[in-house]
């Protein structure tokens, strides 16, 4: 086993405990970055025989159990089916993350199929993450005001954490309003069209983020997906006049649960300790979170490889099915006490408690 730099050092830990921003001073652990590159070259290809069955199976189970929850009369059984639907549709939905990283020639047809089966029906087509999430991975933008997916939650007020999670309950109603009302209004009123695109077309948590206009082939794809989302949104609204309120309300409740699950996962995807400075790759890695085995619960709340979120920041293009093996190789090569070990955490409860404690720390 080779010797690798161990970060954070006692100096950086002391700075963090004192409430100082240590990210800007964090040097890159070049040995770790080199190991991540060299040890995983043979597993870096997206495998269609894993992606397709996983996405299609999750989608099928999600919709089947949703229909069951709508049709059954037994309240407890309906609740159980709704929970299974939320969990499996949540897994299916999170393939939007993989789509944002897939090379355009990888998995032909996968993005289109996902949009037809998941993105449009859940009113979250892939363009809401494409050309947005990759900004979060830019070396000079991560953790800054230009990062659409970063808020310094650990440095905010304690009440901001429950608000951050609970606001996700409103996501399905907001998405329905966006697709059914704002999209057609935008065709008539240009300022509304601009506002809808800049502020409400991206799955972002940074309120200061403004999306740039879509161009070229991407713009054409956006238009097609927006038309599909508009038609589906009004089909959902019209369903009330055919089948009553129950199917729509149960569907909205299931999507609300998936949104809350995703928001909880987002809450513990990072330590959220950066104050806006540009960071090295190693600093970004240590501000991100792995929740590796042996625990199994993380595979439920962080599926499709997202339990290895810190590792994903080292290798953004690594397919989700390869991350467990990549983690094992790096863990074995770098050893306990290495920089790599610094991003591995025990679970959601530990991480929420850590962030909550940080919000209560006095600041100058």
UniProtKB/TrEMBL annotation:
Q: Which InterPro entries match?
A: FA_desaturase_dom, Fatty_acid_desaturase
**Is Membrane there in the keyword field?**
yes
Keyword Membrane part of the UniProt annotation: yes
TM region(s), chain numbering: 50-70, 76-96, 108-129, 163-189, 222-242
UniProt domain Fatty acid desaturase: residue ranges: 75-336
What are the GO cellular component annotations?
membrane
Gene Ontology BP term (one): lipid biosynthetic process
Molecular functions per Gene Ontology: oxidoreductase activity, acting on paired donors, with oxidation of a pair of donors resulting in the reduction of molecular oxygen to two molecules of water
Q: Which UniProt keywords apply?
A: Membrane, Transmembrane, Transmembrane helix
User: What top-level branch of life does the organism fall under?
Assistant: Bacteria
Provide the protein name. Answer: Fatty acid desaturase
Give the originating organism.
Erythrobacter mangrovi
């Amino acid at each position: 086993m080779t010797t690798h730099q161990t970060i954070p050092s006692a100096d950086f830990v002391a700075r963090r405990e004192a409430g100082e921003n240590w990210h800007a001073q964090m040097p890159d652990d070049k040995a770790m970055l080199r190991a991540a590159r060299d040890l995983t070259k043979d597993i870096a290809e997206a495998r269609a025989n894993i992606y397709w069955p996983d996405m299609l199976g999750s989608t099928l189970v999600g919709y089947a159990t949703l229909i069951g929850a709508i049709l059954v009369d037994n309240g407890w059984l309906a609740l159980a089916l709704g929970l299974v639907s939320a969990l499996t549709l949540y897994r299916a939905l999170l393939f939007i993350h993989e789509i944002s990283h897939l090379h355009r020639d990888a998995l032909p047809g996968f993005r289109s199929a996902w949009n037809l089966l998941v993105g449009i029906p859940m009113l979250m087509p892939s363009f809401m993450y494409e050309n947005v999430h990759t900004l979060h991975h830019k070396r000079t933008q991560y953790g800054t005001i230009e990062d659409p997916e970063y808020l310094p939650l650990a440095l905010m007020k304690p009440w901001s954490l429950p608000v951050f999670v609970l606001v996700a309950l409103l996501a399905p109603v907001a998405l329905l309003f966006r697709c059914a009302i704002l999209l057609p209004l935008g065709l008539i009123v240009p300022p509304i069209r601009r506002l809808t695109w800049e502020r409400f077309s991206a799955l972002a948590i940074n309120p200061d983020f403004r999306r740039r206009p879509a161009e070229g082939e991407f713009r054409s794809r956006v238009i097609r997906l927006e038309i599909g989302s508009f038609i589906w949104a009004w089909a959902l609204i019209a369903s009330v006049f055919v089948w009553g309120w129950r199917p729509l309300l149960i569907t909205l409740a299931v999507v609300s649960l998936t949104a809350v699950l995703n928001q909880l996962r987002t809450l513990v995807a990072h330590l959220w300790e950066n104050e806006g400075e540009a960071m090295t790759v190693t600093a970004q890695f240590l501000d991100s979170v792995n929740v590796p085995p042996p625990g199994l619960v993380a595979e439920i709340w962080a599926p499709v490889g997202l339990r290895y979120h810190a590792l994903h920041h080292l290798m953004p293009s690594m397919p989700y099915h390869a991350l467990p093996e990549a983690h094992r190789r790096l863990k074995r090569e770098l050893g306990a006490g290495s920089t790599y070990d610094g991003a591995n955490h025990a679970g959601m409860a530990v991480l929420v408690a850590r962030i909550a404690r940080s919000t209560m720390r006095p600041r100058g």
